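In the design runs reported in the main text, the only information available to the sequence generator was the tokenized backbone. The following block is the verbatim input for one such run; it is reproduced so that readers can re-run the procedure and compare outputs position by position.
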């Protein structure tokens, strides 16, 4: 057994067996474990004693299934002690409710019947969070757990990673919002890896890159003969994601008729292939993302409100890089090492003047832009230290108006740069403007390092 932690715990549950069992377990690991059967005593207890973590039942017998009473008590606790760490105890099957409790300010939740290890780990994590956040080592713990190296220890990123970690195991639908290049895809993979579905498929679908005609067959599959080119049965992306996670990127870009089709699939948890009339059940966890203001789209009736409610059980907002400047240098250093090793370059540090310029830059293309800038700089670098001129290469197209000459590639680069500028870095809109698919535009952005 590890060194016992300090810490004062309160358990509130009206089931005496639960109280006894939980107390027996927690007593071995915490300095003091109090328990209370009557929730009416909560205001008195939290006012007069300082508990580090409160384990609170969501369903007292007065109100067996709605969890409403649990929410009320959570509110009362937070009124008295806004910084209280409250872990909700909830019945299996009430996960959505527990997730709502987290939105309402709970720290975490544990499902009943519980596994001792899980209960202990959750209580210990809540305790450390409450008392020792500052002592934690710098890298966010989630990084190594998922195997995905998410760089960022700014307060806003810590909060994003914290929410991601907590929702990962719940199977709740997640909507990730953020500008292009802020890491939405990466975060979706991270959540998948941390979830119980981590070893099952993660299927990413860029809805902005699928043409309207292929939408249904791509997502739901088709049967042989459904249309001229359908020479054999084909499974869709939902089926490929069976037991795993489907990531629907650019969800804000699909037309109203397809929103209706998607909603039917999500409601019925079953897909019907094009050309078939048999619905096949699918078990997938849904993560969606968009860079658009989806609430506004819903208000303008361009996005179905009922679909929005389905997909946004949990919303995670990824802040743009310019709003988490603390992350710029760690990210730049990360990419420096990645590309120095990839291209076998001797460069290993950033010059002080470059550090300043990196921090001052606005990064409209967010982390993707920084990543490309660092890749290009590493390739062009000549010494051990990267200088501003390596990263902020004077790019003639930025200074000149469109018609610079007759070099085709240069003209293409020019046009794309102009379109990206005009659309404020919004890839979907720029692709539309240029008459390209998003995928085709991405390829060109990569090619020209834009
Ligand atoms: N926190 C991070 N740490 C390290 N790399 C990151 C981080 N966030 C994003 N990246 C990298 O930046 C690039 C862009 O990230 P990603 O594709 O996840 O962004 P996105 O928001 O999904 O972009 P888009 O909206 O354009 O599809 C990727 O190469 C990703 O690996």
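Verbatim output:
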């Amino acid at each position: 057994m590890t060194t016992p932690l300090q810490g004062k715990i309160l358990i509130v549950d009206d089931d005496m067996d639960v109280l006894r069992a939980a107390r027996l377990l927690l007593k071995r690991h915490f300095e003091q474990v109090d328990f209370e059967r009557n929730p009416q005593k909560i205001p008195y207890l939290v006012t007069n004693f300082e508990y580090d973590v409160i384990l609170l039942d969501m369903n007292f017998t007065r109100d067996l299934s709605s969890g409403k009473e649990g929410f009320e008590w959570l509110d009362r606790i937070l009124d008295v002690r806004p910084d209280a760490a409250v872990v909700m105890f909830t019945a299996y099957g009430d996960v959505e409710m527990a997730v709502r409790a987290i939105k309402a300010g709970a720290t975490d939740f544990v499902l009943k019947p519980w596994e001792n290890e899980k209960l202990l780990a959750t209580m210990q994590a809540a305790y450390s969070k409450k008392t020792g956040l500052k002592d934690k080592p710098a890298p966010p713990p989630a990084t190594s757990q998922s195997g995905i190296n998410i760089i960022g220890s700014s307060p806003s990123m810590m909060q994003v990673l914290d929410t991601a970690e907590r929702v990962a195991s719940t199977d709740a639908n997640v909507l990730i919002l953020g500008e292009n290049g802020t890491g939405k895809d990466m975060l979706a993979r991270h959540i998948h890896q941390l979830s119980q579905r981590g070893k099952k498929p993660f299927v990413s679908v860029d809805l902005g890159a699928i043409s309207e005609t292929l939408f249904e067959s791509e997502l739901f599959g088709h049967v042989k003969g459904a249309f001229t080119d359908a020479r054999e049965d084909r499974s869709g992306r939902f089926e490929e994601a069976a037991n795993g996670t489907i990531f629907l990127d650019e969800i804000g870009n699909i037309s109203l008729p397809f929103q209706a089709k998607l909603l039917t699939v999500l409601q019925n948890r079953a897909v019907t292939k094009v050309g078939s009339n048999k619905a096949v059940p699918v078990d997938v966890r849904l993560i969606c993302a968009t860079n658009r203001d989806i609430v506004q789209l819903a208000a303008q009736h361009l996005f179905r409100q009922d679909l929005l409610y389905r997909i946004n059980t949990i919303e995670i907002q990824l802040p743009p890089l310019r709003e988490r400047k603390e992350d710029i240098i760690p990210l730049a250093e990360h990419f420096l090492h990645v590309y120095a090793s990839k291209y076998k370059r001797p460069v290993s540090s950033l010059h002080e003047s470059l550090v300043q310029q990196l921090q001052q830059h606005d990064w409209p293309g967010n982390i993707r832009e920084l990543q490309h800038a660092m890749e290009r700089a590493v390739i062009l670098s000549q010494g051990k230290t990267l200088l501003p001129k390596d990263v902020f290469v004077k790019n003639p197209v930025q200074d000149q108006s469109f018609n610079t000459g007759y070099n085709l590639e240069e003209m293409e680069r020019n046009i794309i740069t102009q379109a990206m500028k005009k659309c404020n870095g919004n890839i979907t809109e720029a692709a539309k403007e240029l008459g390209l698919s998003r995928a085709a535009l991405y390829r060109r952005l990569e090619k020209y390092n834009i």
